[in-house]
Amino acid sequence: MNEDDERLIHQADELADLLVRHGLDATSSVLDVGCGYGRLALGLLHATDHDGPYLGFDIQSRSIAWCSSALTPIFPKVRFAHLDVRSERYNPKGSIDPTTMSFPARSGTVDVCALFSVVTHLYRADIERYLTEIRRVLRPGGVAVVTWFLFDEARLPLVTSTQATYPMIHELDADTRYMKEGEPLRAIAYREAAVVAMAEAARLEVRTIQRGTWAGEDGDVFQDLVVLARSTSDTTIDPDPATSQGRPDRAATARVDGRIRRLARRGRRLLRRLVGGR
User: Fold this and answer.
1) What is the CATH number of the domain that holds 263?
2) Whole-structure pTM over 0.70, yes or no?
3) Model confidence over 189-202: pLDDT tens digits?
């Protein structure tokens, strides 16, 4: 990701702080959707007193292999899982349809769900499924902290300008714009009203919308931030998915285990440098 250790930890701490600002406490259960190589987990370990359960999952097995070899053995409450979800950009041969996938968490058990730079690489139908899963796994009163690229008519000149970090110059449909021709999932933006409608359809409340600096505006976050919540009155617990879809399968686990063995020594060396150990 072209990040040195200092930048990695700085950004990790910022992500952890976002969760604290929106309800994370020391015992909160955290589900990190699209955890990548464990940036949020590092931030929680480095910058907070969080000691609750954490599960991160990602569609890229190499990242999960590193996290599982470098972090979990030292911090057992920090766990990771690989889901072989299909993505035309990041995992084109994935075996799981993103519109039917299930998060690897039990219904009604998560206090804080994090999606950093995830829906900025998903089509709308996939996002709708992810939102449904967010509502399923959250406890009543739980929150989801999600980063997006948003636009409306007033903001359109900014998000299509060459001054934007990701100029959304191409139109997929009336509610969807993207940056690079032929690669919509490189960076994809949604009309703010459509995002609110998707959240409401998934029975999630929109608690906060905060504009980021990516389009050239002032702010203290880069991507736009949307905080969603499951109502405290929404006490119905949906059944856990009956199939294994969305859970780590044996083949995926075997692939990850092989990579864990190959990456373990290198991963532990890097972790020691990151946390200041010997």
Assistant:
1) 3.40.50.150
2) yes
3) 999 999 999 999 99
